[in-house]
Amino acid sequence: MTQLTGQPTTDDDVVHLTVPADGGYLGVLRTATAGLAARLQFALDEIEDLRIAVDEACAMLLAIATRDAELECRFTVTEDALTVEVTVPTVRGATLPSESSFAWKVLTALTTAAFADAADGRATISLLTRRSSGY
């Protein structure tokens, strides 16, 4: 089951991508996000919102990533939702932006739900987007 949706998944419903923690590789994650959202028949504006949210989440994580780190991205596909979890090893003492920050407001405005966790030298941001009804 996914943490944010509570829906069961199978291995066929999960895509893992690992890229260097470098802004130059974020296009790979944005493209994967758009492709999976399109597969779920998300509307074009929903796809673009999710791409922007993934980009913003990655930017938050890149700011606190260790040198030569890798971004691990896990996409979980359910019948009507896409969950994107991005994780990175962090520098000592790193903290994510507060939930009152502009960056966090962007994430929550563009997705159905957003969650962040930083512990044991790793930070994860999880984004859930449900497809609009009527599709």
From TrEMBL:
Listed InterPro entries: HATPase_C_sf (IPR036890), HATPase_dom (IPR003594)
Pfam families, alphabetized: HATPase_c_2
Origin superkingdom: Bacteria
EC main group: transferase
Kinase in keyword set: yes
Start and end residues of each Histidine kinase/HSP90-like ATPase domain: 20-87
Protein name listed in UniProt: Serine/threonine-protein kinase RsbW
This enzyme's EC code(s): 2.7.11.1
Signal peptide start-end: none
Keyword DNA repair on entry: no
Keywords of the record: Kinase, Transferase
Record organism: Micromonospora purpureochromogenes
GO MF term set: protein serine/threonine kinase activity
